[in-house]
Write a structure and sequence with these properties.
Elements lengths: L2 H7 L4 E7 L6 H8 L3 E6 L14 E5 L1 H8 L15 H6 L4 E5 L3 E2 L11 H10 L34 E10 L5 H6 L12 E3 L12 E5 H4 L18 H16 L2 E11 L5 H24 L9 H16 L5 H19 L14 E3 L1
Parallel strand pairs: 1-2, 1-4, 2-3, 6-9
Antiparallel strand pairs: 3-10, 4-8, 5-9, 6-8, 7-9
Helix pairs in contact: 1-5, 8-10, 10-11
Length: 361
Amino acid sequence: MSETGATAILKEEVDIVIPTIRNLEFLEKWRAFFQPYHLIIVQDGDPSKGIKVPEGFDYELYNRNDINRILGSKSHCISFKDSACRCFGFLLSKKKYIFTIDDDCFVAKDPSGKEINALEQHLKNLLTPSTPFFFNTLYDPFREGTDFVRGYPFSLREGVPTAASHGLWLNIPDYDAPTQLVKPLERNTRYVDAVMTIPKGTLFPMCGMNLAFNRELIGPAMYFGLMGDGQPIGRYEAMWAGWCMKVISDHLGFGVKTGLPYVWHSKESNPFVNLKKEYKGIYWQEELIPFFQSVSLPKECTTAQKCYVELSKQVKAKLGKVDEYFNKLADNMVTWIEAWEELNPSAMAPKSDALPNGSAK
């Protein structure tokens, strides 16, 4: 399958989900790569504030009023004033693949100066198997010009379906506030031409600014938690989703890849503002990581939905004692799955009332 062929074939199978609080001029930089695809834009913050989208894009635009209207009593599971609101777009999509990107990320260039089509590389990652059970020292054996090395078990070379593709960033690294404060001028200029499968049993800090996943395989586990306004924590939304998604992928026999593609991350956030949002998470993560490392899901959990509901029970039982917030989060994890099943009933057409107030076709 040629590079352009893969992209053209999947044109009707991909939604691009973008959370934003501002006009989306950044799409002009992505026009050559994004224009063939459908966009789901989730406007955060004040719903009375209009935002502009460049002409020529096929998009739906949702704001908080739409979230409240479509989800009703379940709308409280979608975060407010936090990029975690993007997962509302995951709920509404009916496509097989989701690519989500932040509005301060632009087209990066590889060392030869060629612009990187991030979406195309994500699709390549998702369309080829993962190898989570045995590490290949030449990284992804399904990339052109490489293969399995000597000593790699033939019984494992078929690989498993890839659930998620985690991309990286040039320029502004994805650092926490303490690291930002001690390295205020640091920029990532290191382009590593590699994709690898994260081994089974290994967690990682997922970032949502350059991420793609197979919605059919793992979509219900891609809940970005309860963050932002009214919550004691922020900036941990993608990490929470990543930890949940990874343990569920491990249980269901799926793989997760990380590495290429790169995007150019242009905007450095304020480390003092970030510290206020993150500080509880910095303490809590020392208990969260051991929790996720020890999670065991019963064999009866055969779908991402069932796994996620079971995980919510374990969150309440084991993390509720860390802080009352985790009891609330566990309840909202269940609400999220209820909303997912309501908006994504099997063998039924999508509900007509799940249309935004304003959309462009």
